[in-house]
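Consortium newsletter contribution from the modelling node. Members have asked for a concrete example of what our holo predictions look like. Here is one, prepared for the zinc ion complex that several groups have been discussing at recent meetings.
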Amino acid sequence: MERTLRLAILALLGALCLVDPLGFFATTPAQTDVGDQALERASGSRTVAIGLVSDGGGVSTIPLEVYVARVLAGEAEPGAAEAAQQALAVAVRTYALVNAGRHRREGFDLCDTTHCQVMRTANETSRRAALATAGRVLTLEGTPVEIFYSASCGGRSESAAEVWPGGAKFPYLQSVRDEVHEDEVPWVLDLTLEEIRQALARAGFGGERLRDIDIDARTPSGRVARLRLTGLRPDAMAGDPFRMAVGPRQLRSTAFSLRRNGTSVRFTGVGYGHGVGMCVIGAGRRARRGETVEAILAQYYPGLALTTLDARAVPSESAAPVLAESVRTPVVPPKASGMVVRVPSGSTVSAAELEQLAIHAHESLSRVLGTSVGPVTVELHGSLDGFRYETGRPWWVSAAVTGTTIDLTPAPLLAQRDGMDATLRTAMAELLVSPALAGRPAWVRVGAAKYYSRPTPPDAPSRAVSCPADAELTMAISAAAQREAESRAERCFTRAFARTGDWRVVR
Ligand SMILES: [Zn+2]
Ligand SMILES: [Zn+2]
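And here is the predicted structure:
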């Protein structure tokens, strides 16, 4: 969850305290202390393995409810009424349960950074909220589902489909009006065109001068969906990556308007964070005016049910720290072939077939490129959502290379696109050239991968090609734009390679 959440809460807390004559923020005295032991008992055999990424490494396996209390201590609005704390406890628990397979390749369930959920030292309030809601999660048709939450929606939450391409798999995360923000003062951010250009250059955009910036399209909730960046390459960008590039703490949300005055640009907006799912500030206000935990959850997650986890579903005699067995796959040790291959259960392509293709691609490309990498992991995903979730790439990407791992979209989709063999060869070529091309523009790597994956090398273009800026390859806003940029990358590489004859020196 976003680090910005806590900052927003601190900022808003100051404002809220002024309008808190009844002292709701004071902790009610004489409440029974809840210790970790009570939380441990309430967890039954449910535990969660946390990768201590922010704390020197290692894995700590802790009871689920202890984890919920610790995350809550960091994410909750300090002093929020109990119903808001409890609603967030349910969201934190649901998130943990559904995302338990997120780091299976590294040997744990969740990490302790903003990538997953940050933990703090549990306090009395957070322990009490965890215990009061122990085992309760949000479900759709009986199954816990992926949910999100953010600091403040600013008056209208965002539909997941608008923030993350492919977010259509979250039909229950729709945009809803949140009328509790009416008295909030908009935030303002002033930047010069040059400051914006520099931020975008760090994200891989080309172009010497940003001449103008405009909002091109908005989502149905009113957030910025696309910006036009006159003078840069590419000259368009989606709203959410723009916010990340400028800095999510400076540009607090995409619910903004902008006004240009000479070379300076003023952003005026509401809310803090992506705005999808529960709004922590809004939940706090609802709790203070007396809404129940059920009512708060129904506001932000309409269509989801509040369900208690089935105690029988977890074998209590088992000491195995398995939170959600279905999403975990065992870590497969590399074989002599140097390949670790995973296919989904019921896959039409067997692990042995995929392994053969991967070995063949690796061998033939290693020979041509004079480089080798091992062991290589190839994972064929069972669903496009699974692929997108693991890689963070948009729906039109067929394969993603991260270090020595290749993620592939489902086999039927690969068959419709370039075919599994061609996709795997391109990905393998990218994996093999990447270490030697580190620090070079992205078109060198992408172009080399496409060039070497072909059965016969393409002819060098006779005329100069404009090589794509990094962002044209990594932040394309459509499948067509992506294809066009990749094609230019290949032609650029082919032309440069024809001059040097050595792929390692192309730049
Ligand atoms: Zn993580
Ligand atoms: Zn809200």
